[in-house]
Amino acid sequence: MKSGETRGEMPGERRPPLTGVAYEEARAAQAAADGFTTDGPGRPWPGAPRPSAYGGRSGPVIVTPFDPLRLCVYATVALLGWVLGPFAVIVFAGVGFAGYVRARRAGLVRSKCLLRDTRLVLAYLGLVVVAAIAAIVLRFFT
Prior knowledge:
Keywords: Membrane, Transmembrane, Transmembrane helix. This is DUF4190 domain-containing protein. The protein has 2 domains: 56 residues, no CATH class; 72 residues, no CATH class. It contains 4 helices and no strands. With 142 residues, the protein is mostly helical.
């Protein structure tokens, strides 16, 4: 097999990169084929081998399906934001702000957030809190 080719492809055939759920399913399938597992807490990364005295693997390989938990979390946050309005925005942005302050004090300077720099993330979350407070003031006191 030539470099750059994978099993099941014709020579010269190129497939678009997998993203999202398809990517996670492909990683789980590859991990199963390689004899690794993607289940269980405490693994250093998905697909980490199970430690044992027998070459790093023990027992049958167990592969769990992709769990789209984040999508459920996003839906719940959206529902709470819809029901509670600006009060929910204050709570979520405040918790995020407090978490980023704590992480920044611990040494985090680059985030996985789209804004990357933790100072920008803190400014964004602070602005969201101020906007939510303004919305509450305008809604209930005018």
